[in-house]
Design goal:
- This is Glycosyltransferase.
- The protein is of the alpha/beta class and 348 residues long.
- It has two domains: 146 residues, Rossmann fold (3-Layer(aba) Sandwich); 175 residues, 3-Layer(aba) Sandwich (Rossmann fold), CATH 3.40.50.
- It contains 16 helices and twelve strands.
- The protein is elongated, with a radius of gyration of 21 Å.
Length: 348
């Protein structure tokens, strides 16, 4: 039976992965099944990357033979191989190819990879997360690009919970909810919070860190944890279905990323569904995701001194955060799978 769509991405079947790539892949596939019908969607898991790549030519032929549309969601390494191979195989099948981009790094990769650029120019659709990425891709000469925000299926809290009086007493509870690695800026947040608390000679802020530790940075994080004062803790991993219940009791989410090419981080969608304002570094697509003074505040990318000043201002006037909660909940409605998939469907 001919399938309407085949999805190639990291599902990690049988295992629990909480990274943004896996969550986005599973979310898209589930919504496609909801819309097209389970029987019209087939899935291919790229987990165990080397084994997958060895089988990729056969997988590609099977997908193109059985599906009208092939949708891929690879990360940095996978896209270099998957896109050119599918383009070559599609010479014989003439099916529609779609690339749903995760994050905001693609334009930088294309500037140094003409083979990949030529392959992607032959895709029927490239779906980036933000308007700023759309503009950058268009500047490269791509006319097959569409803006499809990241999304999550989350049980947002009730409006009454977001708008009730949030009297904030010390200490104010902050959290980080992301992959645990140096380039997520975790040390920046720790440094700022330590300095503010030390100068005040009391615990103004606490910080709880959630998320999977990058497998290549476990030693770094173990050493970092050894320096934690009592008001900073690592809380481990939380299933993405429980993210809202975990976040809703915090004062604010901090996102001090050092990845300038972030797209729409899933952690911010989690925060909005929990009516939780965000304090973040101004990465490339910041303005596509955070409304300054409405759903959060930003500081100059990489500027720790400005980060410090902003957190000092918030400490002296907590209402700068608490008054934003209802706006965060409204913003969450823009990142539901039901709405974002409407960008993809007309091209299938």
């Amino acid at each position: 039976m001919k399938k309407k769509a085949g999805v190639i991405g990291h599902f990690g079947f049988g295992k629990e992965f909480l990274d943004g790539q896996t969550v986005k892949t599973k979310t898209l596939a589930k919504e496609l099944k909801n819309v097209l019908g389970d029987e019209h969607v087939t899935l291919c898991d790229t987990h165990n990357g080397l084994k997958f790549l060895i089988k990729l030519p056969f997988t590609g032929i099977r997908m193109l033979h059985s599906c009208d549309n092939v949708i891929i969601l690879p990360a940095h390494n996978g896209i270099r191989v998957i896109a050119p191979l599918l383009c070559f195989l599609n010479i014989f099948f003439h099916k529609k190819l779609h690339y749903v981009v995760i994050g905001g790094w693609l334009p930088d990769m294309l500037s140094g990879n003409k083979t990949l650029a030529r392959s992607l120019s032959r895709f029927d659709g490239i779906y980036v997360e933000t308007k700023s990425l759309h503009k950058r891709m268009h500047a490269f000469g791509f006319n097959n690009v569409y803006t499809m925000p990241n999304s999550k299926e989350l049980p947002a809290i009730k409006q009454s919970s977001a708008t009730r009086n949030h009297e904030q007493t010390l200490p104010m509870k902050l959290c980080i909810f992301s992959r645990v690695m140096q380039k997520k800026g975790i040390e920046d947040a720790i440094s700022v919070i330590k300095d503010i608390n030390d100068k005040a000679d009391k615990t103004v802020y606490t910080l709880d860190i959630y998320g999977p530790v990058d497998v290549n940075e476990t030693e770094w994080f173990q050493q970092l944890m050894a320096t934690f004062p009592p008001y900073i803790s690592y809380k481990g991993c939380v299933p993405y279905t429980e993210s809202v219940n975990t976040l809703k009791n915090y004062f604010a989410l901090v996102f001090p990323t050092r990845f300038y090419t972030e797209g729409i981080p899933g952690t911010i969608i989690d925060a909005y569904a929990a009516a939780l304002p965000v304090v973040a570094a101004r990465w490339e697509s910041f303005d596509d995701v955070i409304y300054e003074g409405k759903t959060g505040y930003g500081y100059k990318f990489g500027d720790i001194a400005e980060f410090h000043r902003l957190m000092d201002e918030i400490a002296s006037c907590p209402q700068k955060i608490t008054e934003l909660k209802s706006q965060c909940l409204k913003k969450a409605k823009l990142f539901t799978p039901h709405d974002t998939i409407k960008v993809l469907l007309p091209h299938l």
